[in-house]
């Protein structure tokens, strides 16, 4: 009986601790910590699901803003560009201040630039990237990220020229002279073509 009386406070303490730990794990902070730990361990799918749990249980949580950015950076680093852009869009729509908008729009351009990994292919994507840069320069002429956007813009223009030069040669080779004229271009002197791995060249013209 004395042993039981002696252990009773300790057992009550353990029970309260377990309830507190369980309550914390199911709180907004607890789910936020789970997202962080999942990303740190490389379990990106788990982190995505934890955010859904957080949104469902605590739609007004102060952690959602931070978690959206955290997931954006994690997926960008993992080169999962589609999801990175999704989380960035969510952050911009829901939380970005007017001062943050130029940064968000620049990040979208950077994502589209990084995701364009197959030079000499996908004319529509490179044209869209060029248009994005042009629109950005018109809308945010005083942006702190204008230099970076201009760099991407020039690289995209050069890639387009090399892509068009390839298409021009292909059409001429097939005797489609009229179609070839649309893609006739002059390559800048001392410029270098986009670098692609040798094994990818097997799938190009």
TrEMBL record:
The keyword Cell membrane does not apply. The keyword Transport does not apply. Keywords: Signal. Coiled coil: none annotated. Pfam families: YfiO. Residues 31-182 form the Outer membrane lipoprotein BamD-like domain. Residues 1-21 form the signal peptide. It comes from the Bacteria. This is Beta-barrel assembly machine subunit BamD.
């Amino acid at each position: 009986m004395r042993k039981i009386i002696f252990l009773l406070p300790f057992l009550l303490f353990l029970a309260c601790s377990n309830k507190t730990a369980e309550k914390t794990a199911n709180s907004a902070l607890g789910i936020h910590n789970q997202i962080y730990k999942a990303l740190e361990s490389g379990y990106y799918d788990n982190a995505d699901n934890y955010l859904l749990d957080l949104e469902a249980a605590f739609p007004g949580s102060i952690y959602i803003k931070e978690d959206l950015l955290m997931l954006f950076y994690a997926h960008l680093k993992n080169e999962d560009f589609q999801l990175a852009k999704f989380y960035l869009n969510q952050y911009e729509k829901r939380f970005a201040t007017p001062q943050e908008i130029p940064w968000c729009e620049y990040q979208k351009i950077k994502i589209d630039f990084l995701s364009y990994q197959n030079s000499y292919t996908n004319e529509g994507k490179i044209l869209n990237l060029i248009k994005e840069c042009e629109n950005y320069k018109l809308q945010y002429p005083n942006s702190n990220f204008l230099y970076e956007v201009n760099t991407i813009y020039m690289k995209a223009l050069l890639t387009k020229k090399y892509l068009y030069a390839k298409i021009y040669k292909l059409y001429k080779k097939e005797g489609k002279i009229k179609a070839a004229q649309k893609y006739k271009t002059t390559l800048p002197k001392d410029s270098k073509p986009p670098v692609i791995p040798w094994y990818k060249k097997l799938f190009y013209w």
